[in-house]
TrEMBL record:
Residues 1-78 form the DUF8151 domain. The chain crosses the membrane at residues 12-32, 47-66. This is DUF8151 domain-containing protein. It holds the Pfam family DUF8151. Keywords: Membrane, Transmembrane, Transmembrane helix. InterPro entries: DUF8151. It comes from the Archaea.
Amino acid sequence: MTSGLLTLLPELVELAVFGLGSLVLSGVGVYIEQFALSMVGSGQPELSVWAAVMGAMAFGFSYLLATDQFRPRLQRFLDANADRQ
């Protein structure tokens, strides 16, 4: 039983890293977009546009990480474990 859990550990760590990475990037994107909105309110449109673009890039990277890395690995993990049972 222990050897079975040890074989799953690298895959679970990999899934956790990609899932948490996507979550953190989304949070960073929200924070940067809030910063961009506050800069509009304080009368600094150039900084606001720059921050909005950076926030959009964080959201884009988060989406790509979730769809290109996390989802296929999760599906592969679930399929492999369904075959074991």
